[in-house]
Amino acid sequence: MIGLAFVGWALAAGQLAAGQLAAGSLVEAPRVAVGPGVYRPTYAPTPAEEKIYVARFLLATTPVTNSDFALFVANSPAWRRDRVDPLFADEGYLGDWAAADAPGASVDASGPVTRVSWFAARAYCAASGGRLPTEAEWELAAAASETSWDARQDPAFIQQLLGWYGEPTPKRLPPVGGRPPNRWGARDLHGVVWEWVEDFNASLMSVDARDDNSGDDLRFCGAGAANATNAGDYASFMRVALRSSLEARATVRTLGFRCAWSAP
Known about the structure:
This protein has about 260 residues and is α+β, with helices and mostly antiparallel strands. It has helices at about 1-15, 65-75, 120-125, 135-140, 155-165, 220-225, 235-245, and strands at about 30-35, 35-40, 50-55, 55-60, 195, 255, 260.
């Protein structure tokens, strides 16, 4: 999958270089500074990988909205639903929109855009002068509650996350920004939509029997959990499971994104 993602990235980069993607034509997203900090990944193959230092970066306060993405599509017609290259998005791309280039009344213009592929999300962020956050960056930001920089051991916070994840997805997604900001100042990292990250498939576990003669054992959660840094962080398991199941061209009704920028 990583090889295919790299090929797609190279093609998308070629589009940007060729001027098919408009830069500097988007509404500037409010952003907050996050970090520096340390992220403990859900899966750590070796002790040396149990902690990842995350440098200070900037993160959009909310996910990209339908109206934001419609402006991008207007300035970058190659990303219209009726023109997008099948290499970059599956058949569900922007499937909730009423038209190829406009959300219409069927979705909330202020709601998070979904059914966008990883390629489309990367192209949008590049046009905004940014990029997708890495998994470590996103998770560091998402670990904060309203009062704590790191609430991953807080039972109330964990229960709140599980409650959000257990709720059925409404037919019409709510506007972004409706939830209180966390300690970093970011909103809606939980409870609205899942979000793309740059290295979305980085946590994939190998199932190649040549690796350590473990063979199919690594395919199952019981064996995979042996390398978990926090076996009680079920919410993180759910996020990793979703990301690991995706292809770069995949689109999901509950999957959106937000952009990040490297700090000066």
